[in-house]
Amino acid sequence: MQTTSKRKLIKSVAALGIGTAIFAFLAPQAFAESTKIIYQTFLDPNNSKDPRSAAQTKMIDAFQAKNPDIKVELLVDPTGATAARAIKSGSQTPDVVRVVGFAVPEFAATGNLLQLDDLVKKDGIPDEDWLLPLSSTKVAGKLYALPQDFRIPILFYRKSMLEKAGVKPPTTWDEVCALGAKFGESDTIPFAVPLGATGGLGGAQSLGEFFLSTMLPGNGGEYFTPDGKIAFSKESFIKAAQTIKDFYTTCKVTPLRSAQMGFNELHDAIRSGSAASAVFGLYRYKTVKQQGGGDDLAWAPAPGYSASDKQTVYSYNIAINKKTVNQDAAWTFVKFMVSPEAQAFAAEGGEVVSRKSAYTAPYFQSDAGTDQKKWADLVAQRGQTVTYTPILSTYHTILGEAFQRMILKDGSPADAYDELIERYGAALAKAQ
User: What's the family (predicted)?
Assistant: First the structure.
């Protein structure tokens, strides 16, 4: 009886040991398989018309093949509004977000972005392997996001329309003004200047991004102070506002219907050919070409007061929600998404990727990658970075409304400046 009991006990202990061993083996796998991170992105994987979406899918597939214990779930957020609310409210998700460069100060001000300096140092991510130094993306000396691509405004134009008018792509604002007389009375918009608020992150972002973020600070100047105060001069504002007003009035190069355009309408105008030229985002070039621009669409460096003026560059960044419970998995994902391997996929979508070493990929040796290599050179040669306000959407809203009043109600640049200073000052004080 005792022998039987001992045997049963030995078997039970052995079974328990095996069971424990099996559990010990399976538990980490089960835990690993359950590690899910939510990645907020403006790119919809189901959008077959946007090559950037297909490139994003390739990047994520490659990551999951290397990291089968981490599942990436997408939160498609075209305007970024969902991510902004989540970060500002201290939500635990999404775990990883894409943040446009000029919104990083606003996100960082919430205290809910993870500081990345120590992680970058620990993993030996080289500072010299970026088109622009990582320091250019820091907020108050701290790194909260890593750039995935760099963006510089370029001139989109329809070759056939400029050839018909007998003009070359303009290199200065004076040459833009001269297009009006060359095109004469026409249903075509010779040069579109968007003042509207559709698309983007809020307000007249296209006006700010493609024009004023470069015109107001000037070459090597300042846009905002680190605490959000306006740093550009009244003189630079008056000069920029008068230049744009002249496009609508004296030059007759920009018809009034352009005043209602935002991102979406500007995209459609270039795609359809209802606009002959416009300063737009290079990240849309490949998409516009595929959606109707075809071989008739071409590009040139954006005009300036002079042909060699600096252009303000910003980046689309990837950042980690400080409240995430999956910080290690999130960092593993972020680290991969800015790696040369992942960036080679991103390049296929038309982006000017941020890592120098990515430009050795076979794609950049093909005809398809020619434009992007030239854009990368443009970023390095003429690009400059500026400090943005943490209430950028509010600033763009005030800016767009002031410019529309100036154009549509024949106001003065000085009046527009006074309106901006008064309303923006009040908004900044309230935000602080």
Answer: Belongs to the bacterial solute-binding protein 1 family.
